[in-house]
From TrEMBL:
GO MF, any single term: DNA binding
UniProt-listed GO biological process terms: DNA recombination
The organism of origin for this protein: Desulfitobacterium dehalogenans
E.C. designation(s): 5.6.2.3
Annotated protein name in UniProt: ATP-dependent RecD2 DNA helicase
Domain ATP-dependent RecD2 DNA helicase OB-fold, first and last residues per copy: 21-96
């Protein structure tokens, strides 16, 4: 990858020369931040006569700090108001000892089991420039048979990290990039890291995990890369399309693309329309972007949308494996037998849903909370067992929590979609795919409104045509966090057999949550009950007082014996006084206050985790097998990792992976999809204005299984109910399904 990158490097740049240099040895470390490398050290200058001092203070970024190491620093002298004269360095090059004793001593610190005697034998054989020879020619260590392969690797890695990584860190950490990021860059490019970063820092956004355009741009601007550099514009173009996916879009219109690029590149920059056209042409030639009419796609996204549409049509048009002339009679007989066997009476629409699941290889069941979706799922399973005489039944859901609920409700094991398809981190893909499909049987996937385009494509291509596949979900909920609105598009295409469950059984049993869910969907209305058994409304206009009321409700929940996994605070947005970020901090002080026995780990400027914290995964981490939306509790913290318990499964996150986590005492409503909690405390305020929509409000309060406490402004709730128009998502999946089906919309929905 680095070689291909280097081949494209053509642009030069202007370098700002440091004012002065200072060579010396580190005598003490007064401060070192391992996250960003910022260090305050004492130095013994090499030339004491020239500097006129025997010791001085220096500040700057170092990847690793060891007393006794020698550096050549570049920077300038500054007068600190409190600490006096300091040398502020912007660059630090490790000076490797060349004389034999010093080189052997240095070498002996790099690998376990290699002491001074062995190190001296290596230096004696390689000469005074031994250390540099090892860096440039790692194979020279092969001649020393007393070294194990592991020791050879440790020596080379230690030398590289102490020299090249230090140089890289000094180059980029001054731009606010952490040492962890510098290490990932170094692990990707090795000795070429500094050269690649200097020539084109924007490749980092494409090739190094955890780096996006904005970080790459900070580095680029710090290195004086031209604002209209093709590298910069191309990187921004790709980032804009990827970010559109995070906003739910599968593609962008030309107008939206220009708006996004203006924000990223700056309206005052030298970037013009011609620069953008040239960037698109280059990216198109490289097969990264493409355009269909007014739709500009990432090429991979267009391929996924087309493939998903084809597979949906393939399954939707395939007769069910067990469909025959007497299927209807058999199903009627089976449902009657199941009613007698399980003591349940199926409503007509539930019977219809069970029967329809056998008509085609693909069918849909949709309905709100309390409409009997779980009863239908259990009915389909039992009918399949009786008709198919086949026990190969697979149940899945997008998140671990949703899968666990499915298991509890049906009595059958369910797993996440990712685990069903068996992600293989070695190959970076799923083991079950178009070339290695799932075994044929019955597949039911719940909470399908949460499934985005990519996950849906991966699942559908892995489903054989003789599978019976049923997707279940509430189409009135928010669409997926990721790109697309797959469930809605499948239903609205009217090409897939669909049953909509409307009768609400929880409403019949007196559930106000279920009653108001139906009223919100059908009439756009909602009663705000003052204080009933399962619904309490607290009207509050002032954000500060609203936060106080939430804190009080959290204390009540704890006093009633609820654990942190039994209740969830929900808000529409992250930012602001009544946003998720602030609510997490104030709730943590109640639920998991500081304790000398609870270690903490700082993960950012103002961010840290504490033993016992409730956390949520915010992006898929296939390597660790955890996925966006998984919720767990921190059960271990040490200097380099955090151990999290996810429903009994413990996963260890290294420093590089910790940014995939955030606190989860409070969560956005979007992140709560697929989950239910005994108690939900939801806040809806006018300050959330841009997010206030009917489907967001509906999704939020229907997460409450037993009790809802809503802290709100009445006018904010009214805004939600009045704003029934769904936020537009750019996707052509529905149109492609209809086109590939080769027919006008049917009446199957």
């Amino acid at each position: 990858m680095a070689t291909a990158t280097a081949a494209r490097m053509k642009k030069g740049k202007e370098t700002v020369q440091p004012v002065t240099t200072l060579a010396g040895k580190i005598t003490s470390v007064r401060f070192h931040n391992p996250q960003n490398g910022y260090s305050v050290i004492s130095i013994e200058p090499k030339d004491m006569i020239e500097t006129g001092m025997v010791s001085c203070s220096a500040v700057g970024n170092l990847a690793a700090v060891r007393v006794g190491d020698e550096y050549e620093f570049a920077g300038e002298w500054k007068e600190h108001p409190q600490y006096g004269r300091q040398f502020a360095f912007c660059k630090a090059d490790v000076v490797l000892p060349k004389e034999k004793t010093g080189a052997a001593t240095y070498l002996s610190t790099l690998a376990y089991g290699v002491g001074f005697a062995k190190a001296k034998r290596i230096v004696d054989a390689l000469g005074e420039d031994a250390l540099n020879r090892i860096i440039e020619e790692p194979a020279v260590l092969d001649q020393f048979h007393f070294l194990s392969p592991q020791q050879r690797g440790e020596i080379q890695e230690g030398l590289l990290k102490n020299t090249r990584l230090a140089e890289l860190a000094a180059l980029i950490c001054k731009e606010g990039v952490g040492i962890g990021t510098a290490t990932r860059i170094f692990n990707t490019y090795g000795q070429s890291s500094v050269t690649i970063v200097k020539e084109n820092p924007y490749v980092l956004a494409d090739e190094v995990y955890g780096i996006g355009f904005k970080v790459a741009d900070r580095i680029g601007m710090g290195l004086n890369i031209s604002p209209d550099s093709p590298y910069r514009v191309e990187s921004a173009y790709l980032y804009a399309l990827r970010e559109a996916g995070n906003d739910g879009h599968v593609y962008l219109t030309p107008k939206d693309t220009i708006v996004a690029l203006d924000k990223l590149l700056g309206k005052q920059s030298m970037v013009g329309v011609e620069n953008i056209k040239e960037a698109y042409a280059e990216l198109e030639q490289r097969g990264l972007v493409c355009r269909e009419g007014d739709a500009i796609y990432l090429a991979s996204m267009l391929d996924e949308e087309k493939q998903l549409a084809r597979d949906i049509v393939r399954l939707a048009q395939m007769d069910g494996k067990y469909l025959s002339t007497d299927t209807e009679a058999k199903l009627e007989e089976v449902t009657e037998a199941m009613q007698a066997e399980f003591g349940v009476i199926y409503a007509p629409e539930q019977k219809e849903a069970i029967k329809k699941s056998f008509y085609k290889s693909l069918s849909v069941v949709t309905g709100g909370p309390g409409t009997g979706k779980t009863t239908v799922i259990k009915g389909i399973i039992e009918a399949y067992r009786k008709i198919a005489k086949n026990n190969l039944i697979m149940l899945a859901a997008p998140t671990g929590r949703a899968a666990k609920r499915m298991t509890e409700a049906t009595g059958y094991d369910a797993c996440t979609t990712h685990r069903l398809l068996r992600f293989n981190p070695m190959h970076g893909g799923f083991e079950h795919n178009a070339d290695n499909q799932l075994p044929a049987g019955l597949l039911i996937v719940d909470e399908y409104s949460m499934s985005d385009l990519h996950l849906a494509k991966c699942l559908f291509e892995a489903v054989p045509s003789d599978m019976l596949m049923v997707i279940v979900g509430d189409v009135d909920q928010l669409p997926s966090v990721g790109p697309g609105k797959v469930l809605e598009d499948i239903i609205e295409s009217r090409q897939v057999v669909t049953t909509r469950l409307k009768f609400n059984y929880r409403q019949a049993s007196g559930s106000r949550i279920a009653l108001e869910a139906s009223r919100v969907v059908e009439f756009g209305e909602c009663r705000l009950y003052q204080d009933e058994k399962d619904w309490k409304t607290i009207l509050e206009d002032e954000p500060e007082k609203a936060v106080t009321r939430i804190k009080a409700e959290v204390r009540v929940a704890l006093a009633q014996g609820l654990g942190i996994m039994d209740f969830q605070v929900l808000a529409p947005m992250k930012k602001g006084l009544v946003g998720v970020d602030n609510l997490n901090e104030v709730i943590r002080e109640i639920v998991n206050p500081p304790d000398a026995l609870k270690p903490e780990k700082k993960t950012g400027k103002d961010k840290f985790f504490r033993l016992g914290d409730k956390i949520i995964v915010i992006r898929n981490n296939y390597k660790l097998g955890v996925f966006n939306g998984d919720i767990g509790v921190i059960q271990g913290i040490d200097s380099s990792s955090i151990a999290v318990n996810f429903e009994g499964e413990v996963v260890t996150f290294s420093s590089d992976d910790i940014n995939d986590l955030t606190l989860a005492y409070a969560s956005t409503i979007h992140k709560s999809q697929g989950s239910e909690f005994p108690l939900v405390i939801m806040i809806i305020m006018r300050s959330h204005y841009i997010m206030l929509q009917k489907n967001l409000f509906y999704t939020g309060f229907t997460r409450a299984k037993q009790r809802l406490v809503m802290v709100c402004q009445e006018s904010a709730v009214k805004r939600c109910l009045d704003n029934a128009e769904k936020k537009e998502r750019h996707t052509l999946l529905k149109d492609r399904i209809i086109a590939y089906a080769g027919a006008k919309p049917s009446q199957s929905a």
